[in-house]
Amino acid sequence: MVDVTETLDVKGEVCPYPDVKSKRKVKKMNSGEILKIIVDYPLSAERIPETMKKLGHEVLSYEKTGDSEWEIIIKIK
């Protein structure tokens, strides 16, 4: 288990808001910090990990935690 530095809860929000908020959040974080993103919009749950990889961050985990809820753990580059 990793120590999460920050948590971004974007449940209840639809595209593009979870994606945009995730990108803004990682820009404010330092290298090596860990971000947990909680999302319940399926399209964002697919897109956020792909976007984070393209930005050079490491996706540590991607887990469905409920009927329509995912947790995405990102290590900032």
Could you please describe the fold and organization of this structure?
- The structure is a single chain.
- The longest helix is centred in the middle third of the chain and has 13 residues, at 42-54.
- The model has no long low-confidence stretch (mean pLDDT 96).
- This protein has 2 helices and 4 strands.
- It has one domain (6-75): TusA-like domain (Translation Initiation Factor IF3).
- The protein is of the alpha+beta class and 77 residues long.
- The protein has a 4-stranded mixed β-sheet, covered by helices on one side.
- Helix 1 packs parallel to helix 2 (42-54).
- It starts with 5 loop residues before the first strand and ends with a strand.
- Helices cover 31% and strands 34% of the residues.
